[in-house]
Amino acid sequence: MSVTKVSDLYRTAFVTGASSGLGAAFVEMLLADGVRVWGTARDPARLGARENFTPVVLDLADPAAAGENFLHAADAAGGAFDLVIHNAGYGVFGPFAATDFAVWQAQLDAMMLATLRLAHAALRPMLARRRGCLVNVSSLAAEFPLPFMSGYNVAKAGLSAFSESLAFETRGTGVTVIDFRPGDYRTPFNQAMQRSSAEPSEIEARAWRRLEANLLAAPAPARAAADLRGALLRGRSGTVRSGSFFQARLAPLFARMAPRVLLRAALRIYYG
Question: How far is CA 37 from the centre of its chain?
Answer without folding.
Answer: 17
